[in-house]
Amino acid sequence: MSDSENESNSRSQRFKSFLKAGLSKSLTKGKDGLLKGKLHVEHTLGLGPQPNVIPPGEPGLTLGHRTVAIGWHPVPGGNWLAETVLGQLIAKKINNYPDPTQHWAVLVGEYCHQLWMDENLDVIYINGKKSDSEWTTYEIGKTRLNDEALRQAGEMVIYNMRTKRKAYNLISNNCQNFALNMLDAIQVGKHKEFGTTLAIYQRATGKGSISDLFLEKLPQAQEEEQEDQRPPQEVLQNAYQVMDEHTTKLDTHHCH
Questions:
Q1: What pTM was estimated for this model as a whole?
Q2: How large is the average pLDDT for residues 97-114?
Q3: Which of 1-15, 67-81, 107-121, 152-166 has the largest mean confidence?
Q4: Which residue has the higher pLDDT, 91 or 191?
Q5: For 220, how many CA atoms within 13 A lie in the half-sphere containing its CB?
Q6: pLDDT for 147
């Protein structure tokens, strides 16, 4: 067995041990306790900022449209949880919640953009190199933003989410919310609006200063909609439906 396989098995075993201990304690505390137990497990496995893998550069536009996908991958050990008596007990405690073992992100080109959590369990933005074998993906829309512009869009989306609620929440402040918010910010038909909101974000945070040249090059919504032939709201609604259909729900109505 290779070192990487040994490391993977060890990580999965640690997940199982921590998950069992953390969630067992939280079951008696209801929904909030369950979530805190889950987050404690993930914290043990490496929460916090991750290295940025997007090459440095200036935000800009590409010559052609780029495909935007949303995708999910399982949290390690999720299948084990579903098969245990502990998993059945959890289902009796909560009703129609999205399965916390499914993690969603936005994927464009070689990179994935996603919500994660820091050491305080508050939401943060991270990115990473996309591995096709890791993600189950669904093509959703188009963008003309380059990778640096997308990175800044991810940071901006998380900043706006944190102004409303910093803490991760399984229903209202999660990876699916981030994916929809980022898609709304970067898709064709929203580029001019993106430039305006990015400039506001940069002034509020002091993180960079977007160039007037970039802002001037951003096309008007009417021009882009003629190219894509789909209004942004339709693309967003489709993304919501895809995530809803492909996210397992923890539903007590069918538990016995």
A1: 0.72
A2: 85
A3: 152-166
A4: 191
A5: 2
A6: 97
Q: Using CB atoms within 10 A of its CB, is residue 206 exposed (0-12), middle (13-18) or buried (19+)?
A: exposed
Q: How far apart are CA 3 and CA 1, in angstroms?
A: 7
